[in-house]
Amino acid sequence: MLRTDLPKIITETLPGPKAQAIIDRRADVVPDAIRCVYPVVIAKGEGAMLEDVDGNRFLDWIGGVGVLNIGYSHPEIVEAVKAQSEKYFHGMFNIVTHEGYVALAEKLAAIVPVKGDKKRAYFANSGAEADENAVKVARGYTKRPNIITFTGAFHGRTLLTMTMTAKKAYATDMGPLAEGVYRAQFPYFYRNPAEMTEAEAIQYYINSIYDVFEEGTAADTVAAIVVEPLQGEGGFIPAPIAWVKALRKVCDDHGILLIADEVQSGFCRTGRMFATEYWAEAGVQPDILATAKSIAAGMPISAIVAREEIMQAVPAGTIGGTFCGNAVACAAALKTIEIMERDHLADRSLEIGKIVTDRYNQWKDKYDVIGDVRSMGAMIGLEFVKDKKTKEPNGELVSAIVQECAKNGLMVENSGRWGQVIRFLAPLVITDEQLECGLNILEKAIQTCLK
Q: Taking the chain, what is the end-to-end CA distance rounded to the nearest angstrom?
């Protein structure tokens, strides 16, 4: 059974002949700008495993970049989607009310840890749309034009979110970019500019926000500060709680809303249903939360949640859209959340995270090329360097490791400004045997690529 199987490569080369034929067709008709470095053409997926068109079986530690927290093809999600599709696929929410949208909004209003007692939620189709809509809500409420994002941030590829995203390789030849976006320094303790205590580092990074107020845009023109609780594309860097508390105070002092981008970190990935639950446990909450990816086990839907006074200030007609809150996607999301809560996948995330980080830390002592291990639950970054003293990034080694892993049936992906981090986003339904197998493949790949 694929769901409980282990990786197995049966073709002499990758991609296999059937996969190569489809990849060749892809190359002939799809823009090269939509890149894929993996020699895999999926035929089916179950749990944390996928099988390609040639019968090769791969263990997937990418999970659609955080989409598949409950794995591929969960039987209960399949049934929920079938049941809704037999009634109707689509009912535009501006035209007809459908109960799935309302029920999902009620559920998210009950579980999302944003400030306020009465909350409202609405839906879009992707993470980028969620982030862009969160900004629209903040502007509508504050009547201010500008936002602040951070170094290392990734928020999407629409015009606004591409501007919000730090790495401008994602915006090559796309100018002029959107107006009103300013950038401060995100706390990346492993790469602090000087030897600092934690308290000094927190103040250093908070000062960079005041530098924006002084040299970029005045505080009273800022609608919101947008932050990932744990940066994804930036290198799996957790936002320190002490810094989050200081950031919340900056926002409160200047009438600025705090937006949490939980597109990748939401839905049990970090050991909580949402990473911002760790903030709430420390007495801090965002004003607006944007989330997507694992919300519906692969169906396209995203959510924006905020307290009532913020949501009700949004001008009529400025939010919503044709496919937003699609009925089939809402059915999948409701069932996904039910499964996550029932099966305690947040707890499972903590178990997985401990197993993986314990092994990674052993490797950190064993291999000179591993500089840092960072994690929240089962959202884990393994940073590679050329020298532990200089911390020079080693993206070339990571690229080689990614390909070596794929040859042996494990799919992993890089992240970080220099591609120097291997990210762990395996489905939380992964078996212990699969997890151990993947760790062994990854370590062997590291050893092979160091020869």
A: 36
- Amino acid type, 365: D
Whether 193 shows a pLDDT value over 90: the answer reads: no
CA–CA distance, 406 with 379 (Å, rounded to integer): 20
Do residues 429 and 71 lie in contact, with contact meaning Cβ atoms separated by under 8 Å? yes
Beta strand residue intervals within 67-164, DSSP E = 119-124, 146-150
N residues, the chain: 451
The answer to whether 141 and 175 have CB atoms below 8 angstroms apart is no
Q: Residue 201 burial by CB count (10 A; 0-12/13-18/19+): exposed, middle or buried?
A: buried
pLDDT at residue number 194: 79
Q: Is residue 414 classed as helix, strand or coil in its secondary structure?
A: strand
Contact 423, 413 (CB under 8 A): yes
Contact between residue 232 and residue 165 where contact means Cβ atoms under 8 Å apart: no
| Nearest Cα to Cα of residue 401 among 355, 442, 369, 371 | 442
Average pLDDT of the residues in 231-260:
98
Give the closest residue to 420 by CA, choosing from 193, 239, 240, 188.
188
Structure tokens at 413: 């992906």
In this prediction, residue 195 has a pLDDT band, given cuts at 50, 70 and 90, of: confident
Write out the DSSP string of 350-409.
HHHHHHHHHHHHHHHHH-TTEEEEEEETTEEEEEEBS-TTT--B-HHHHHHHHHHHHHTT
Residue 100 makes CB contacts below 8 A (sequence gap 6+) with 84, 325, 327, 330, 331, 334
